[in-house]
Amino acid sequence: MNTSCETDAGICDNGEAAQLYYTPDCATIKGYVILEGSNKTYVFQHEIDDQFQGSGIEVCVQYEIEPEPIPLTAECTQGDVITIFNLKER
User: For the chain, what is the largest distance between any 2 Cα atoms, rounded to a whole number of angstroms?
Assistant: First the structure.
């Protein structure tokens, strides 16, 4: 099945279409999201619901960029730190 980024993004009425990756083994992050269309990567430092603790999960995500994040270590994915306040599986 062929879908465009425009179609994928349209699936999310609230939030943005993204791929979510949970990486609890990293010292300073719990995971990251890659926004579809822009391929922008954001990391998060808080726990998320068990159903989203996996790799490559297609989600709709609502978030805020964290103004004062815990500094990131080099061995983990880098990006702006966000706080996710809504996740929905697509």
Answer: 42
